[in-house]
Specification:
This protein is mostly beta strands and 116 residues long. It has one domain. The strands form 3 sheets. Strands 1-2-3-6 form a 4-stranded antiparallel beta sheet, with helices on one face. The longest helix has 10 residues. Bound molecules: zinc ion. Zinc ion binds next to loops.
Length: 116
């Protein structure tokens, strides 16, 4: 499934289901950023990869967002920014933050931006 254009190289961004550390997650990655399992069973970029764009769907798990959906990723690639709902520990209040494409980490949250 093609989600959009890679912000790094303009290639297609694909969605792939993988199991990483026992968790089933989606890996959103550029078609030129291919992952393969190494001898330690970890996913690493293959030698033929020419791009590094990848985002795991559980990237925001630390802020209690279980999954960045394919739809959200699609919108992010299209518009360059989306708003995500995050929340603190159980019972904590939820809050909204802008999520943008990042040239180094794939995505990043604009923590200092207050959304009303
Ligand atoms: Zn790329």
């Amino acid at each position: 499934m093609i989600l959009g254009k890679c912000p790094y190289c303009g290639g297609n961004v694909l969605s792939k289901k993988i199991t990483a550390r026992g968790q089933k997650v989606h890996l959103y990655h550029c078609e030129h950023a291919m992952k393969e399992k190494d001898i330690n069973d970890d996913y690493v970029f293959s030698a033929t990869s020419t791009c590094r764009f990848q985002v795991y769907s559980n990237v925001l798990l630390r802020w209690n967002k279980r999954s960045l959906s394919e739809l959200e990723m699609k919108k992010l690639l299209q518009e360059g920014q989306i708003v995500v709902r995050l929340h603190g520990k159980k019972g904590g209040s939820e809050y909204f933050k802008p999520l943008i494409l990042d040239t180094e980490y794939g995505i990043s949250v604009l923590w200092d931006t207050q959304l009303s």
